[in-house]
Amino acid sequence: MAQAHILLVEDNAVLCEVLVRNLRARGHDISVAGGVAEALNILRTREIDLLLLDINLPDQTGWDLLRALPALPDIRLRPTSDGRLPVVILSAVRVSACRLEEFRPLAYLSKPFPLEALLRLASQITARPQSDASGRLSTG
């Protein structure tokens, strides 16, 4: 498996440290953002295979980030082969079904979640073929 580039958008330093350490141990390249503005800067400069996104962030919400993405042509978040954004929502608050339908994340994990569940999801999602910016399939 080629190294996956994962962006973790999370403001809890302890959770970030645990997730980064475990994802790196499984061969993933991790960038971390503590808020939406920082995440957008990373998404403009690095190609990202998977976005792990908290909802309650200090500057805006994760929903605000997802709402902004379609209007930003310079974002480098590669969609999956079915055109969905490779997003896993991580949230301590219950996420409504209408939010999940609106944004169609690949997965939703309610905090606290089992670490193995996230690691398994990250491996499964980043191992799938994805579309490049032109819509052609890419295996990483």
Please give a structural write-up:
This protein is of the alpha/beta class and 140 residues long. The chain has a single domain, classed as Response regulator (Rossmann fold, 3-Layer(aba) Sandwich), CATH 3.40.50. 36% of the residues lie in helices and 20% in strands. The strands form two sheets. Strands 2-1-3-4-5 form a five-stranded parallel β-sheet, with helices on both faces. Strands 6-7 form a two-stranded antiparallel sheet. Helix 3 (62-68) links the parallel strand 3 (50-54) and strand 4. The longest helix has 13 residues, at 13-25. The N and C termini lie close together (8 Å). Residues 132-140 have low confidence and may be disordered.
Number of DSSP strands? 7
**Helix proportion of residues, in percent?**
25-40%
CATH architecture level-2 label: 3-Layer(aba) Sandwich
Give the CATH H-level superfamily. Answer: Response regulator
Spatial shape:
globular
Low-confidence stretches: 132-140
Task: Kindly list the characteristics that best describe this protein.
140 residues; alpha/beta; Rossmann fold; five-stranded parallel beta sheet; 36% helix; disordered C terminus
Brief overview:
The chain is an alpha/beta fold.
Walk me through the topology.
Elements (H helix, E strand, L loop, with lengths): L4 E5 L3 H13 L3 E5 L2 H10 L4 E5 L7 H7 L18 E5 L5 H7 L3 E4 L4 H13 L2 E2 L5 E2 L2
Parallel strand pairs: 1-2, 1-3, 3-4, 4-5
Antiparallel strand pairs: 6-7
